Amino acid sequence: MLLLKGDFRTGYAFLTISAAAALIALVVARVNFPTPSHLEQGRTAPAKDFSKAYWLYMLAGALFASGLMSFELISYHLSKARIASEQWIPVMLAISTAFGVLANLAFGKIYDRIGLPIVIVAVCISAAFSPFVFLGGFWLVLFGMLFWGAGYAIQDTLLKAIVAEVLPEGKRNFAFGLYYAGYGVGWLLGSIATGLLYENSRAGLITFSIAMQLASVPVFIAAERQWRPS
Question: Considering the entire predicted model, what is its pTM?
Answer without folding.
Answer: 0.83
